[in-house]
UniProtKB/TrEMBL annotation:
The keyword Transit peptide applies. Residues 17-129 form the Acyl-CoA dehydrogenase/oxidase N-terminal domain. Keywords: FAD, Flavoprotein, Oxidoreductase, Transit peptide. The lineage of its organism: Bacteria, Bacillati, Actinomycetota, Actinomycetes, Kitasatosporales. InterPro entries: Acyl-CoA_Oxase/DH_mid-dom, Acyl-CoA_Oxase/DH_mid-dom_sf, AcylCo_DH-like_C, AcylCo_DH/oxidase_C, AcylCoA_DH/ox_N, AcylCoA_DH/ox_N_sf, AcylCoA_DH/oxidase_NM_dom_sf, Glutaryl-CoA_DH_mitochondrial. Its cofactor is FAD. This is Acyl-CoA dehydrogenase family protein. It comes from Streptomyces flavotricini.
Length: 389
C-alpha cells in the first residue's frame, strides 16, 4: 500500500462504506456551500442565509444526526463525529450551528422533554425549518453553572422566567430556546418559544472569533410560560451537563477538522513556496514542523475515533470526553499556529484558512468547558480528590 500524506496511519480503513459515504457527502456540501464564501462571511462578521443553510443541513440529515426518531437520521456516533470534522474543516461557526442545534437544543428536548414537546419541536428542528439555541452561560456565570441567577417562579399553573444568558450561538435566529434556570425545586430546563412576550435576543457584535456565526444574549423579562414548557425529565445540573457531554463529543472531532485544514494548507504551501532556490518543504526545519503537526493531527483523529466507538457501545464516560476535548482543541490550536509560521506573512491573510481557524479555536478552547475545568475533571478522576472548590 502506498503512503498517503493525508491519511498516513490508514485511518480510513477503520471506517465502513456508509461512514465514508456520510463523510464525503458532508465534505462535498461544505466545499460547495461554505468554502467559496467563508472568508467574506468571516471578514464581514456575519452568516448570511443561515436559515437556508440550516434547511440544507437538515436535508443532509446533519441536524440531530445521532438522535433516533422525530425525523432525525439515527446515525452512529462515529458518523456524527465525521460530519463535525468536515464541517469544522470549513469553519468552526458552521460546526457550532450544527452542534448547538443537534447536540444541545435538540438533545435536551429529545432526552428530557415530554412527548408533546418532542412532537412540537424536533421534526421541524431536524429539517432545519426551526432553529434552536441553548441558554446556560450567563454574563457573570460561566464555569460554575450552579451559581446561575436566571430564575423561574411558579405563578399558579404558569412559570415566570427572568434572567440573562450570554454567548448563545443561534440565539437571534432561534424559534425555541432551551433555557436553564433556578427554581424553588432545583435547576430546571424550559423550552421557551422565542416569540414569547418579554423574550429578546440581541446579537453580539465586535467578535474576533467565530465571526461567521450568530452569537447572542438572551434577555428574559417576566416571560410567562405555561406549565408544559418545563422539561419534565430532569431536575438539577445533570440536565445541562448531560447535554454538554453530548456536544463536547462533537468538538473532539470538529477541532481536528480545523487542524486538518490548516495542516493541509501548510503542506501545499511548503511544496510550492520557494526560498533560496528551492521549495521550503525541502528544508529540515519545515519538515520537522510538518512531521510534528501530522503526528498530533492523526493522533487526535484516532482518539476521536476511539471515543466514538465507545459512545456507540454505550461505554463512554464524561471524564473521557474531557480527555478528548482538552487534548484535541489544545493540539489543534498549536497545529494552526505552526502552520501559520510555515505560511509566513501569507498566514495572516484570509486567502488562506489558517488564521481564521486559529482565532475560531480560541473560542472552542474555552466554550463548553475551559482548559482548567477539563484538567480538574481529569485530576479528580485520577486522584479521587475534588479540587473544584
Amino acid at each position: 500500500m502506498p503512503f498517503v500524506p493525508t491519511d498516513p496511519l490508514g485511518i480510513d480503513e477503520l471506517l465502513a462504506p456508509e461512514d465514508l459515504a456520510i463523510r464525503d457527502t458532508v465534505r462535498g456540501w461544505a466545499a460547495d456551500r461554505v468554502l467559496p464564501h467563508i472568508a467574506g462571511w468571516y471578514e464581514s462578521g456575519e452568516l448570511p442565509g443561515i436559515r437556508e443553510l440550516a434547511r440544507e443541513l437538515g436535508a443532509l440529515g446533519a441536524l440531530g444526526m445521532s438522535l433516533e426518531g422525530y425525523g432525525c437520521a439515527g446515525a452512529s456516533a462515529v458518523q456524527y463525529g465525521l460530519a463535525c470534522l468536515e464541517l469544522e474543516a470549513a469553519d468552526s461557526g458552521i460546526r457550532s450551528l450544527v452542534s448547538v442545534q443537534g447536540s444541545l437544543a435538540m438533545y435536551a428536548i429529545w432526552k428530557y422533554g415530554s412527548e408533546e414537546q418532542k412532537q412540537r419541536w424536533l421534526p421541524g428542528m431536524a429539517a432545519g425549518d426551526l432553529i434552536g439555541c441553548f441558554g446556560l452561560t450567563e454574563p457573570d456565570v460561566g464555569s460554575d453553572p450552579a451559581a446561575m441567577r436566571t430564575y423561574a417562579k411558579r405563578d399558579g399553573t404558569d412559570w415566570v422566567l427572568n434572567g440573562r444568558k450570554m454567548w448563545i450561538t443561534n440565539g437571534s435566529v432561534a424559534a425555541v430556546a432551551v433555557v436553564w434556570a433556578q427554581t424553588d425545586e432545583g435547576i430546571r430546563g424550559f423550552a421557551v418559544p422565542t416569540d414569547s412576550a418579554g423574550f429578546s435576543a440581541p446579537e453580539i457584535k465586535h467578535k474576533w472569533s467565530l465571526r461567521a456565526s450568530v452569537t447572542s444574549e438572551l434577555v428574559m423579562d417576566d416571560v410567562r410560560l405555561p406549565a408544559d414548557a418545563v422539561l419534565p425529565g430532569v431536575t438539577g445540573l445533570k440536565g445541562p451537563l448531560g447535554c454538554l457531554s453530548h456536544a463536547r463529543y462533537g468538538i473532539i472531532w470538529g477541532a481536528m477538522g480545523a487542524a486538518r485544514a490548516s495542516f493541509e494548507a501548510a503542506l501545499d504551501y511548503a511544496r510550492t513556496r520557494e526560498q533560496f532556490g528551492r521549495p521550503i518543504g525541502g528544508f529540515q526545519l519545515t519538515q520537522a514542523k510538518l512531521a510534528d503537526m501530522a503526528l498530533e493531527l492523526h493522533k487526535g483523529i484516532l482518539l476521536a475515533h476511539h471515543l466514538g466507538r465507545r459512545m456507540d457501545a454505550g461505554t463512554l464516560r464524561p471524564e473521557q470526553i474531557s480527555f478528548g476535548k482538552l487534548n484535541n482543541v489544545r493540539e489543534a490550536i498549536d497545529i494552526c499556529r505552526t502552520a501559520r509560521t510555515i505560511l509566513g506573512a501569507n498566514g495572516i491573510s484570509l486567502e488562506y484558512p489558517v488564521m481564521r481557524h486559529a482565532t475560531n479555536l480560541e473560542s472552542v478552547l474555552t466554550y463548553e468547558g475551559t482548559v482548567e475545568m477539563h484538567q480538574l475533571v481529569l485530576g479528580k478522576a485520577l486522584t479521587g480528590l475534588d479540587a473544584f472548590r
